[in-house]
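hey can u run this one w/ adenosine-5'-diphosphate bound, need the structure tokens asap thx
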Amino acid sequence: MGKESFRTIQSLGRDELIDELMEHNALSSDLVVKGYGDDSTVLNHQKGYQLLSSESFMEGVDFDLTYVPLHHLGYKIATAAVSDIYAMNGSPELVLVNLSVPNKISVDMLKEIYRGIGAAGKDYEFQIGGGDLTASHQTLGISISCYGEVAQDKIIYRKGAHEGDAVCVTGDLGGAAAGLRILMREKRFWEEQDQQQAFQPDLTDYEYVVRRQLVPVARKDFIEKIADLNILPTSMIDLTQGLASELQHLAEASEMGVYFYQAALPISLDTRRVADEMKEDVDKYALYGGEDFELMFTLPEEQVEGLADEFSDFTVIGQVTDKEEGIRMQKAEGEVVVFDGSGQQL
Ligand SMILES: Nc1ncnc2c1ncn2[C@@H]1O[C@H](COP(=O)(O)OP(=O)(O)O)[C@@H](O)[C@H]1O
Ligand SMILES: Cc1ncc(C[n+]2csc(CCOP(=O)(O)OP(=O)(O)O)c2C)c(N)n1
Ligand SMILES: [Mg+2]
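ok here u go:
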């Protein structure tokens, strides 16, 4: 391939890349209700829909073995995979685990990863159904595909948000990014020492954010609560990447705009404390940090109170607007900023 034809992945962007790759897909099976482009793939099923989601973690890109306990790694990747099933209002049933294993990883280390996946299986109620195992030269790679189910009249897509709906998020945002900052700082500190000792930082002051990074929890509780209350959000997505990017995904799929308030972003005090210490803007953790695995959903205004009466761990951050209005954030001081197509703030 000539050098002029070498297009870098960065030059295209993630969503455009996936679109281009998928141009090679030749078939459109009757089984498939929604192919790629939402949190899970949706298939027809006698009783409802089947859901499929997939997550890959590469050492050095998605995790760093210096500071990630292996059972946490197993739990976290399972969380990431089931979170996409919950984001469709489904329940996970089974996962397939693919491992690419370098020589530096022992049997006991792999068993630790599986202990984490098994613990997630108990919490989220899925079975480990099989997988694949291959060797790798240097780096550990793990991928989990998750199979789940949802009743036809309960499925929630990214599309479906209506003008005027409240835009809501569960839990708090930016904690995982704050935790990553702390772990990276401690690693740098350790590297600057003579590295005689194993990496054993004292993280007691940062317990909350470090847990948010290492062992995030998918919001099964929210899915169960809305089922109990018979509340059906009009659209939903999980927050794997930062809020800005997922707002873009939801707004685009729904062909709507979103107006939201910076001051309304739910951010814990522990997360704020880390940003202060790092002299960084905490809202950037929430907007661009990612890995919070919270759910963002839209709900007709008149249903918000009913949900709030029964479930307190969610926040209204704004409302759905006309598509022409784009994605806009009103800053605490009143200034309004627009987000462009890539989710970056203009
Ligand atoms: N390599 C790929 N080929 C085809 N589709 C892909 C690929 N990677 C991701 N997708 C699809 O793009 C959509 C978004 O994926 P992704 O950004 O990984 O979402 P999430 O953050 O919810 O895991 C999904 O529908 C997924 O199936
Ligand atoms: C060593 C290390 N580097 C970076 C991160 C941060 N990180 C890893 S995955 C991720 C979220 C986005 O992941 P991506 O693969 O783009 O998401 P998906 O395919 O699931 O949408 C972030 C912020 C991390 N946790 N550990
Ligand atoms: Mg998702």
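The first helix runs from residue 9 to 12. anyway lmk if its weird
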